[in-house]
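Q: I'm writing a short explainer about Glycerophosphodiester phosphodiesterase for a general audience and would like to include a description of its predicted shape. Could you first generate the structure from this sequence?
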Amino acid sequence: MTTSPAELHPCVAHRGWSGGAPENTLAAFKLAMTEPAVYWIELDVHLSRDEVPVVIHDGTLNRTTNAKGRVRDLTAAELAKLDAGSWFHQVYAGEPVPTLEQVLYLTAGRCRLNIEMKEGTPDADRFAHRVASLLRAYRREHDTVITSFEPLYLKAVKRHAPEIRTGLITDKRPTSLIATLKSLEASVLSIAFGHVGPSLLKETEAARIQVMAWTPNHPRDLARLAAMPQPFQICTNYPDRWLAAVQKGSFTP
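A: Of course. Here's the predicted structure. Afterward I'll give you a sentence or two in plain language.
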């Protein structure tokens, strides 16, 4: 049986369909799920002041909301009252900062999740416990991967929920990368797409490590990745461009 390009290189919608809606909002996640070929959504999580996992990329509110200051200084209820959509387009005015629980409810049975635990929470165990407990409550342990740049977070996840898959995020490719992944019990490598090539994919395949390439958005980069014969995920802001790449195999500049 021949594997289709879409199956070979599954699309992960980066912060939702963030090229078409404000990143890390319910609007972006809903938009991503309108494309039947998108099976994965990537999102970012911090803890609020009341220790609720909330979905936002930055540790501060300045870039993507109408407020300033640190995410961890506000409660989840206070964050829900902010405008996290107007910066993108006025049509999304009033889009709130969602909780992870809202996203789990929205995507249940519809889409798998790649949850990045963002740096900034000093208590790794508490952070891991809050996230893992929600995944268990919604029975999402087996269709979710938790990723982070911070190895301490990944170790904490494995202490609290060894059944949940974890992945290390990196924008480098040191010679010790596979050994590091093994030491963390991580089965996923989330790596900047410029490092993805035959030699890396050969190494990760031998080690049974799944690869996700982030974040190619230019049509030429997507086309190059989609043409590779080895399986790996492509995490992009533009699932439509990904779909064109895997369907046609090339783009017209």
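A: For your explainer, you could say: Residues 130 and 248 are 42 Å apart (CA to CA).
Q: Perfect, that's easy to follow.
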